[in-house]
Design a protein that fits this description.
126 residues; mainly alpha; YheA-like fold; 6 helices; 82% helix; 0% strand
């Protein structure tokens, strides 16, 4: 099914080329690999789930001034485990690299257009 748009054919072709280049850029490819590795790694997921749960618990305890030294020690231990986990590190690093590349692309497009390109996408609910 083809969706009719008001985009001129040459612009649509340029957008499709840009999309393909972004998808196959090194930072995005590494991010996709890292994301798959992370998704499949039970230990890495368990560490992140435990860390997220503990952070949530500590935030709730902070509201009632009930955070204990033991809570903080558990938090430090889980943070250390996360920092030492190769899969988590690769995932986090590749995610930041991909975000950086997308920001560069946005800045270049914005510069060429003379407007903030990302703000246009937000306003159009893309």
């Amino acid at each position: 099914m083809t969706i009719k748009t008001n985009i001129p054919e040459n612009l649509e072709l340029a957008l499709n080329n840009l999309t393909e280049r972004i998808k196959f850029s090194e930072p995005v490819k590494y991010y996709q690999i890292a994301q798959k590795r992370f998704t499949q790694d039970v230990a890495a997921n368990k560490i992140m789930e435990d860390l997220s749960g503990l952070q949530r618990d500590i935030r709730q305890k902070q509201n009632n001034n009930q955070v204990t030294q033991q809570d903080l020690e558990k938090l430090r231990l889980l943070q250390t485990k996360a920092q030492e986990n190769e899969v988590i590190n690769f995932y986090a690093h590749s995610q930041q690299e991909a975000i950086g590349k997308l920001r560069e692309i946005n800045a270049e497009i914005s510069n060429l257009l003379g407007i903030d390109f990302a703000s246009l996408a937000k306003k159009s609910n893309c």
